[in-house]
Each structure stands twice: as structure tokens, then as C-alpha cells.
TrEMBL record:
Pfam families tied to this protein: DUF6879 (PF21806)
The DUF6879 domain, residue ranges: 3-143
Top-level division of the source organism's lineage: Bacteria
Protein name as catalogued: DUF6879 domain-containing protein
Amino acid sequence: MATEVDAFAHWKATGQADADPDSEYWRPWTDLIRGLVTRGVVVRRARIVSEPVSDYIRYEHAGTAANVAAGEQVRWLPRRRASDIALPGNDFWLIDNRLVRWNHFTGDGASAPGEISDDPAAARLCATAFEAVWKRAVPHDEYEIR
């Protein structure tokens, strides 16, 4: 199975990203999302990005069609438009407005062990920040890479 490092290197070399939701690379994730969506769960992803974007964000954007095809709703917000939004210090997934899955990264951008929090204050902070970002963000199919 290809890793993200391999997929990113392939994209950098060819300009082609794997956006097939049924590919070996995507299938574990898209099966999960499809299962959730089938049960009526709404899965939303907001990405706050600096512009001009990095190569990695270009790569993410090119592959996001797989997320959308699986049922995720994805929006993009240029960082300049987020200046007055109080944001948590780390990337996160908010589950049922009560659990936060904090994502941590190393200094070079690699994933580091995450953590789960059931702290109500953290969940409120994340929910408030996410809704503010979501309102301003641009749907994936309308966001133009800059």
C-alpha cells in the first residue's frame, strides 16, 4: 500500500494525485466515511491555508475529490480571512460536539501521536471555532488554489 510520502512524491514528479476513492490508498478512509454518511452522520472538513499555498497543500487539494466522493463536505479558508477567529492551537476532529481528537505534528510536518479529550470547554472552543471557519470558508469545488 502506498504511503502518503509515496503519494506526495508521485504527485510532485507527475502532477497527478490519486483522487480515486476506491483506490488502495484511499479505500480504508473512504469506506469509513461512506459508512458514517450512510448512517446519517455529517462529516465536515475545513482547511485553513496560507496563500500562496505550499506544494503539500496543492497536493491535498488535488486529492480532495476522493474525500468529497466519499461523502465529506470540504471547505477551504485562506488564513488571512481567519485572523479574527479564536482558533485552537492544534488541528482537531470534533466528534458529536463532545469529543476532541487533537492531531499533533512534528516540526517538519510529520504526524505525531494524537490525543482524545472529553473536556467540555475544549469541545466548545472547537465547535465555536469550526462553525466560524465553516461560515467563511469556500466549498472545495469553488476554491481556487493560489
